Amino acid sequence: MKLKILFLSFFLLFSLGLLAQTTWSVKGVITDTAAKVNLPNTSVIVLNSKDSTLVGFTRTGKDGSFAVSNLHKGKFILLLIYPAYADYVEQFSLDSAKTSHDFGRLNMILKSKLLADVIIKAARVPIKIKGDTTEFNAKSYVIQPNDKVEDLLRQLPGIEVDKDGKITAQGQAVSKVLVDGEEFFGDDPTLVTKNIRADMVDKVQLYDKKSDQATFTGIDDGVRTKTINIKLKEDKKNGVFGKVNANIGTDDYYEGQLLFNKFKANEKFSAYATAANDGRTGLGFQDSNTIGAGSGDIQFVDGGISISGIGNSNDALDSFSGYYDGKGVPVTTSGGVHYDSHWNTDKQSFNANYKLGDITVTGTTTSSIQQTEATSTLNTYSNQTFNNYAFRQKLDATYQVKLDTTQTLKISADGTLRNFHVNNDYSTRTDSSSIALNRNNRSVINHGDTRIFDATAFYTKKFKKTGRTLSWSLSESYNQSETEGYLNSETDYYNASGKQDSTLLINQYKTTNNVSSVLNSNITYSEPLIKNVALLFNYGLAINNSTSSQLSFNPSTAGNYNLLDTAYSNDYKFNQLTNQLGAMFNYKTGKLIFNFGTKVSGVDFKQVDEYTGDELKRNFLNWAPQANFQYKFSQFRSFYLNYRGTTTQPTISQIQPVLVNTDPLNQTIGNQRLGPSFSNRFFMYYNNYQVISGQQFYVNANYSNTTNAIVNNTTENTGVNTTQYVNLPNKVPYNYSVYMNMGRKLTFLAGLQAGFNLNTSGNVSYSYINSALDQANSHTYSGGLSISKYVQKKYDFNINAGPSYTFSNMSLQPGANNNAAGFNSSGRFDLYLPLNFGAGSDVNYTYNAATQSFSAEYKTIWNAYVYKSFRKDESFKLSLSVNDLLNQNTNFTRGLSGNTSTQTNTTGIRRFVMLSLIWDFTKFGTLPAKN
Q1: What is the DSSP secondary structure assignment for residue 162, as one 8-state letter?
Q2: What Cα–Cα distance (Å) separates residue 219 from each residue in 150, 151, 210, 211, 527?
Q3: Is the model's pLDDT at 427 over the cut of 90?
C-alpha cells in the first residue's frame, strides 16, 4: 500500500509540474562562424540550474534560429548539442523584470578544431537518454591500455561487474551483451566483456530489450531483457585484435587463454580457447536457459501441465549440468568460434556460433538443516563429497532477410550434445533433542547423454495502413535424454530411546529414457483504430508429445542387475494440446504508453501408463491478464509499471508422482484433487538523470502474490518426511523486492564518483507440518555506499560497503530467533608506477552474524598483484599475483524455505601464487571494408 501511495505521489507531482504555464521565453541563433553557416536541427535544451531537470526542449529551424517559451522565472542552463561539434553550455536567469532572454548569435566549434583552452563553456555529456535507452559516452571515462569492456563497465553509474564477470545494471542482472546490435557468441555476456577492447568502444547503450514481437508491433507485451549494446568506433571495425594469456602457479594451478578477432565493416570472425584449474571456468561454458537460438522471437504458448518432472533423471539419480557456482574445485577447457555478416545493403544477415567445453568439479559440502514443528525441532547434519564431469557442444545459426520494404523473415536453429558423469557420496544424520532418529549413507554413480534440437521461424508483414501488421512465429523443439547409474544406500532407524531398531538397504541399477517434441505456432495481427489507439489479436497452438521411461533393477547375483523392481519403474506417454487466444488494447501518445489485455488457453492433457493401460485426462482453461503503463516526463526521466497474471497448473509429479528411493528419508505422494494456483506480479521502474550534475536516480520494485497456492503438507515420523502437495485456502503467500540507487560525481571532492543504495526484499510462505499450518517470514533490509575515482596513468580505485539485517521467524516456533545482521564490502585499487610498473589489490568481505540456529560466518577474500608492462603500447605484461592471501575461500549460504532453515559450506579454490604472461595484439585500419 505504501508503494502504491509513493508511486501515485510521484505521478501527481510531475503531472502538476507539466500543467504549469508561464510567459517567460528565450531565443537565439546557432551558428559556426568559422564556416560561416547556421546550424539547423541543433538540439536546444533548457535545464533547471539547481537540479538539472528538463524545463524546455526544441530544435533550431533551417536558419539556425530557436525560441523556447512557457518558462518560469529562475536560474537556468542552456545546453546545445550538434553532431561533430563540442557541446555548448551557458547559464542564464529570468525574473519579473526580465521575462525574455535573447542570446543573439551563439557560436559552436567543431570538436576537431577545439583546443582545451579555447572555450570554457564547452562540456562533454557522459550520459544521454534516448527514449528507453541510457547511452554512455566511452570518451567520458578513463580507459587504460589494453582494458577490456568489463573494465569500462565498472566505471559507468548504476552498473556493477563482479569478479566472475556477472553484470548487474540498475539492480537487475544483464543477460545479453550485443556488439553493434548483433549477438556475439550467443547469450554469454562474458564473451563480449572479456574479449572486446575498451578502446574500441564509442558508446555503451543500456536498455530493456523487448521481444521481437513487441518491437515489431510497437505494443509492449511485458517481456523485457536487460541488455547492453556495445557500439564500436568506426575506425575499429576493420582490423585484427586478440590476446594470449599464459599463467602457471603454485600447487599445480594453471590458466591459459587465446582470443582472436578479425573484424571488417560488415563482417566479424572470432575464436577463443581456454584451459584452467584456478576457478576461472572459461569465457563461455555456461549454457543458456532459453529454449532454442531464437526464443526471444517466439511467443510461446503456455499454461499446460509440466511433464518434465516425471521420469526426469533428477527424479532417479543425481545429474550435473556443468554450471559452476564457485563451489568446489573446477578443471575446465572450452573453446568457440563466432561469425556474422551483413550483405546486400544490410538486407540479409547471418550469425553463427559454435561452442564446446568440459568441466570437472570436485569438493565437499557440509549442511545444517533445522526443521521446525509445533512441539519440537529436527536437526539434520549432512556431508557430501562430489566428483562431477560434464561435456557440451552447441552449434547455433540465425539468418535474417528483408524480403521487401514491408516483409522480413528470421530463421534460427541450434543443436546441442551434452553428457555428464557424477559420483556423489552422502552421509546424513537426523536428531531431535539430541536423540538420534536416523542415519543414512548412500553413494550415487550416474551417467547421462542429452540431444537437443530447436528451430524457429519468424515472419513479419507491414501493410499500407500505418500500424496494421501481421506476424507468424513457428518453432519446433526436440529433446532426448538417457541416463544409467547405480544407487547404494543404507538407512538406520532408531526408536524413541535412541536405539537402532531397523535398517533399510538399497542396491539398484537405474535407467531413464525421456523424449519430448514440442511444436509452437503463434499468429499476431495488429490494427489501428483511431489516432493513438490500436488493438492486437493473437492465436497460438501448441502440440506436446512426450514419452518417459524409468526402470530400476535389483541384482539376482553380485553385479548382475536383471530383476525389474516394478514399484520404482514406469513407462508413460504424454499428449498435450493447447489452443490460445489473446487480445491487447494499446494507447500511445508522445509521452504516455498504456496497454492491457489477456490471453486464455484451453488445454487438453492425456497421460497413458504403458504398463497398465491406465489413463489420466485433464481439461482446463488458463487466464493470463497483463497491463503496461509507461510515462516519459522528459527525455531524462521516465516511469514504467507492468502487471502480469499467471495461472499455474500442478505438475504431474505433484498430481501423480513416480515413486523414487534415491533419498529414503524424503518421500512424495500424489494428490489428484490438486487445483491450479493464480499469481499476480507487479514490476515498477523509475529513472531520473540530471545532465549537468551527472546525477542519476533510479528505483525498481517487484511484488507478487499467489492465491490458491500449491504448498507442501509434510508428515514427519522418526525423521522420515512424507510430503503431499495441497492447495492453500484463505492465505496468500507473497514476495517483494525494492532496489533504489543514486549516484553522481562530487566535484567538491576532487571529482569522486559516489553512489548510495537502499534495498529491501522478503517473502511470506506457508506449509503444513504434521497437519499444522506454519507461516515463515523473512525480510531483509540493506544499504550501501560506493566511491570510485580514475586518474589516467596514476591510479584508480572503487570501494563498496554496506550493512544488512534479516528478520526471520516461523509461527510454529514463535520463540525461535533467527534474526541476523550482516555486512558486505568490496574494494579494488590499481596504482600506476614509473617505468610501466604497477600494483593492485582487490578484497571482498562477507559477514553473517550468529543466530539461534547457526553460528556466525565470515570470510575475507584478498587478492593482490604486481606487474611490469613492456613496449610503447604496453601490449606485453608480466605479472605476479597471489590469490586468497588469507586462505579463507569457503562458499557458504543461508536460506529459509517453508519450515526449514538451511546453512551450507562448500570448499573452494584456496591460496596460490600465479606468474602470468599476457600479450594483447592489435592491428586496425589495414583491412578493406566489405562492399
Answers
A1: -
A2: 33, 36, 10, 10, 11
A3: yes
**How many Cα neighbours within 13 Å face the side chain of 806?**
21
Distance of CA 124 to the CA centre of its chain: 31
- Give me 459's grid cell: 515472419
Running DSSP on this structure, what letter comes out for residue 327?
Answer: -
Q: What are the tens digits of pLDDT across the range 247-287? A: 999 999 999 999 999 998 789 999 999 999 988 765 543 43
- At 778-817, the pLDDT tens digits run 999 999 999 988 787 788 888 999 999 999 888 887 877 7
Average pLDDT score over the chain: 84
pLDDT higher than threshold 70 for residue 316? no
pLDDT at 643 over 90: yes
What is the arithmetic mean of pLDDT over 13-26? 53
In the chain, % of residues over pLDDT 70: 88
DSSP letter at 834 equals G
Element (H, E) at 314: helix 313-316
E strands present in 72-121? 74-81, 88-94, 100-107
What pLDDT does 896 receive?
67
Cβ contact 280:331 at 8 Å: no
Q: What is the DSSP letter of 211?
A: P
Query: Which H helix or E strand runs over 469?
Result: strand 469-494
Q: Please tell me the distance from the alpha carbon of residue 242 to that of residue 234, in angstroms, as a whole number.
A: 18
Task: Please give the radius of gyration of the chain, using alpha carbons only, rounded to the nearest integer.
Answer: 31
Q: How far, in Å, CA of 68 to CA of 771, rounded?
A: 71
Which residue type is seen at 52?
A: S
Are the C-beta atoms of residues 56 and 74 closer than 8 Å to each other?
no
Query: Tell me, what's the pLDDT at 309?
Result: 44
Q: Which of 906, 314, 190 is nearest to 658 (CA)?
A: 314
Counting every residue, how long is the chain? Answer: 931
Cell digits for 169? 545494471
Q: Is 573 exposed, middle or buried (0-12, 13-18, 19+ CB in 10 A)?
A: middle
Q: What is the DSSP letter of 658?
A: P
pLDDT value for 575: 93
3-state secondary structure 474-528: EEEEEEEEEEEEEEEEEEEEECCCCCEEEEEEEEEEEEEEEEEEEEEEEEEEEEE
Asked if 528 and 568 count as a contact pair (C-beta separation under 8 A), the reply is no
pLDDT band at 913 (very low <50, low <70, confident <90, very high): very high
> Rounded to an integer, what distance in angstroms lies between the CA atom of residue 148 and that of residue 171?
22
Alpha-carbon span 188 to 177, nearest angstrom: 8
Query: What pLDDT was estimated at residue 9?
Result: 46
Backbone φ and ψ for 318, nearest 5 degrees, come out as -60, 150
State how far the Cα of 294 lies from the Cα of 299, in Å rounded to an integer. Answer: 11
| Separation between Cα atoms, residue 359 and residue 333, nearest integer Å | 7
Q: Which cell goes with 446?
A: 550416474
- Residues 206-250: pLDDT tens digits? 888 877 777 777 776 667 788 889 888 888 888 898 999 999 999
pLDDT in tens, 650-699: 887 788 767 778 888 888 888 888 889 999 999 998 988 776 666 888 89
Cell triple for 360: 570437472
If we measure between CA atoms, which residue out of 257, 161, 361 comes closest to residue 909?
A: 361
Please state, in angstroms and rounded to a whole number, the distance separating the CA atoms of residues 197 and 135. 18
Instruction: Tell me the three state secondary structure of residue 11.
Output: helix
Cα–Cα dist 279/363, whole Å? 13
**pLDDT tens-digit profile of 821-846?**
999 999 989 898 999 999 999 999 99
Distance CA 366, CA 903 (A): 8
Sign, Cα dihedral of 747, 748, 752, 754: negative
